Amino acid sequence: MVAKIGAMAPNLEVSSWVHGKPTNIDKEKGNVVLVEVFQVNCPGCFLYGIPEAIDIYKKYKDRGLTVLGMATAFEDYDKNTPENLEKLVTTGEVIGETYRALAQYGQLKDGNKLPYKMPFPVGMDILKKESGQMADSKIMDFIEANIPDFRSYTEKDKQVLVERVKQYLRSKEYSAKTFEEYALRGTPSSILVDRKGILRSTFFGSNGFLEGAVEELLKE
User: Fold this and answer.
1) Which of 34, 158, 160, 186 is the most buried (most CB within 10 A)?
2) Which residue blocks in the chain are alpha helix, DSSP H?
């Protein structure tokens, strides 16, 4: 099932916590929870998403905000691995496109390391190897999460779209459980949960609205 705005937020599906104290959404009731979702091989995550999450953490951690990092993988499965995540959080070392982009902008230290550390817990999404078989319910869950006006399409357009989704899903080596359960569209993404454990919003990219949304939830 796909997580719904206004409903209880499902727990993060974590294969392991690689940094910080293990926790989850159900253990943080009473706090606003911000989950910053990223990939190791994602330049925008380290140029924008994670620095923004760190700034928000520093400003509001004493006002009832919990920030969690969640590494996932929906592409580049050879780079977005638990091993590279472990290296990232323990040594600061970046790889692939992240390395090339941060090097280009002069934002690395000691050659290949981040100039900052993530001060909050970081977990790895559960990645499940795809079997090649695909249930119709999975196709429709994907469509409903990503194309809300699908039912208004003509039957011919629906069939074309279903085939495209099938091809896309077949091309994936793994399913990332948290990423898919929250119907995220890419990385960086942010998940916001209120003090009662209700999913209030998700954000894709750095759009300038995240801090304001956090402040509003902290006031409730």
Assistant:
1) 34
2) 43-44, 50-60, 82-91, 96-104, 136-146, 155-171, 177-181, 210-219
Q: Which CATH class is domain 14-126+177-219?
A: alpha beta
Look up residue 211 and give its two tokens. Answer: 């801090």
pTM of the complete model: 0.82
C-alpha to C-alpha distance for 46 and 42, rounded to whole angstroms: 7
First to last CA, the chain: 28
Side chain identity at 118, as an amino acid letter? M
Q: How many other C-beta atoms are found inside a 10 Å radius of the C-beta of residue 131?
A: 7
Q: Is the CB of residue 34 less than 8 Å from the CB of residue 200?
A: no
Going from N- to C-terminal start, the domains of the chain cover 14-126+177-219, 131-171
Residue 111 Cα distances to 23, 94, 115, angstroms: 33, 10, 10
Name which of 96, 111, 110, 5 is nearest 46 in CA terms. 96
